[in-house]
Amino acid sequence: MSTTDFIVVLPSFCVSFFPKGANVNAATLHETTLHHAAKTKSVDLIDLLVEFGVNVYARDNLKKKPIHYTSLGSPSYLSLEFYENTPLSLQQISRVAVRGALGIRACEVVSKLDLPNRIIRFLSYMPPPVIEI
């Protein structure tokens, strides 16, 4: 498997891993997952990480933000610039805060909360049910 194959597989892996409570802001080798996504120019992974609450302002050991590893005007630069300049919605901030408070037990705990099914699906990153007419 080449490096390119790994980067293509990574977002689908993350989709199943992050809802289970993985820390998207964890740093390894002095950089966050968002720094890696920026370096590999993976816009899909950048979008996914932001959805799961990654800190777009995080700095690595060289004091660089993820946007510093992109080319001016590239899709990954534009994506990161958008996220740096546009605050998350209150709805998204709430989801990230609740899931952060629950930690790695989020999947098992959310389904047991006395909340409407629609909110449980939202907190679990599940799409809303399709209503056929």
TrEMBL record:
**Listed InterPro entries:** Ankyrin-SOCS_box_domain, Ankyrin_rpt, Ankyrin_rpt-contain_sf, SOCS_box, SOCS_box-like_dom_sf
Q: In which pathway does it act?
A: Protein modification; protein ubiquitination
- Transmembrane ranges, per UniProt, are none
Residue span(s) of domain SOCS box? 77-129
Q: Where are the ANK repeats?
A: 29-61
Q: Name one GO biological process term.
A: positive regulation of protein catabolic process
Q: Name one Pfam family in it.
A: Ank
Per UniProt, which keywords does this protein have? ANK repeat, Repeat
SUPFAM superfamilies from the UniProt entry: Ankyrin repeat, SOCS box-like
Similarity remark: Belongs to the ankyrin SOCS box (ASB) family.
UniProt name for this protein? Ankyrin repeat and SOCS box protein 13-like
Native source species: Notothenia coriiceps (black rockcod)
